[in-house]
Amino acid sequence: xxxxxxxxxxxxxxLSLGSGKAIHKASTPQKTFKEIQEEIxxxxxxxxxxxxxxxxxxxxxxSYERLAHLVDTVGPRLSGSKNLEEAIQLTYQSxxxxxxxNVHLEPVKVPHWERGEESAMMVKPxxxxxxxxxxxxxxxxxxxxxxxxxxxxxxxxxLQRRAIEAKGKIVVYNQPYISYATSVKYRVQGxxxxxxxxxxxxxxxxVASFSIYSPHTGNQKYQDGVTKIPTACITVEDAExxxxxxxxxxxxxxxLKMGAVNYPDTDSFNTVAEITGSRHPEQIVLxxxxxxxxxxxxxxxxxxxxxxxxxxALSLIKDLGxxxxxxxxxxxxxxxxxxxxxxxxxYQLHKVNISQYSLVMESDAGTYxxxxxxxxxxxxxxxxxxxxxSLLRPLNITQVFTKGEGEDINFWIQAGVPxxxxxxxxxxxxxxxxxxxxxxxxxxxxxMNVAAAVWAVVSYVVADLDEMLPR
Length: 471
Ligand SMILES: [Zn+2]
Description:
alpha/beta; Aminopeptidase; 2 domains
C-alpha cells in the first residue's frame, strides 16, 4: 500500500509540474467547467491515497490521540484562562515538531470572564439544589445571593404578555428546543429581555437537543442602557419541573448565588501553520477550528475535534509528500466562544489580501461521521465543489449542502470568499455542546478519521486546482 501511495504522489507531481498556465490573475477563470471537471477527476487516486492513509492506514486515530493528549492534560480552555494559553503554547510546539511550515502565533486581546462559585437553591415549595452554569459575561450576585419568586415563561411573547408579573422576580425561560439557531436567542438575549421588564435575574433552560440533567453554558449579551442582571442556564429537567409547579399556581422561590467576575481583556493568540504553496504561495486555502472552549468538560468536541482534524488534514497531505499549488493555511482560532474574537482580529489583519483567498473552511459543528459539506459561494463554485466532493465516493460522503457559514469564517464569506463547513449529526452534537459531557468520551476516533479524510481531500484539491474558486 505504501508503494502504491508513493506512486500516486509521483504521478501527481509530474502532472502538476507539466500542466496549468504559468501565471494568471486569480480572479479571471480561464478554464471551462468541463475542463475543471476533467482536472478534478484526475485527483481520484490522490483522494483514495488520503482516505487510505487516514481511515485504514498508519494515520488512523492520530487526530483523536493528539487531542486526547492535550485535553486530558490541560483540560477545558476558556478565553482568558491559563489553560487556554498553555494549550496554545503546547499546540504551537507540536505543530512545529510535526514539521509544518511558517508555524507562528498572532496576538489577540481576548475577554476574561470567570464563573467563580455558583449555586441555585429552590427554597419553595421544597428545598432543592439545582444544577446551573452561569452564562459567559454574566455579572455575579451579591454574596448572599438573590432570593426571589420565580416567573416561568415559555417564550419572549409570554414574557411580554406577563411583563407586569416579572418585576422583582427571577425569570425562568422554559422555551422548547426547536433548533440551536432558533432556541439560542433565549440564552443570548434572555437576561436583557428579563431586565427590561424589571426582573432581578434570569435562568434559562439549556439549549440542548437531549438532557440527562446537564446544564449547557454559552455566551450571553448585555445591551447598553439595560440593567445588567445575573443569568445562568438550568437543566431541561428543572425548567420543565418549575413550569409544571407554576402551572398549578404554586409559588416558587429560588436563591441564586453567582461569583462571576469580568476581568480586563488578556493576551492570547491565533495559532497558524502552513504547507506553503508550490506555485502560488500567496494564495490561500484556509482550514480551521477553534482552540478555546467553555470551562466545563474538556472542550473535546467543541471544538477540539474540529481544530485537530484541521491539523490532521495538513498532516495527511504532508505525510503523502503532497504540496499543493496554493498555500494550505491552518488557523486555530482563539476566543471563538466569546463571539469570534480571534477570527475578527485575523480578518482585520489579513483582509488586505482577500483577493488571494480561494476558500475558507471551518469545522465547528462536530467531527462525527460527516454527512457532507456545507457550502456558501457562487453557483459556479458550488458546481466545482460538487465535483470535488465526488472524489469522496469511496467513503459515500459526496453531498454539498447550503450554509457554509461558521462563526470564525463569516467575515470572509460575507465579503464574497467561498466558505465551507463540515456537516455531521448535529442532533448528537447538541447532546454534549457546552456541557460537562463534552469530553473525549463523546468522540469516536474512527469517525474523526473519516472527518479528517474529507477535510484533507477538499482542502488539498481546492488548493491544488489550476484556478482559484470563482466568486
Ligand atoms: Zn465551537
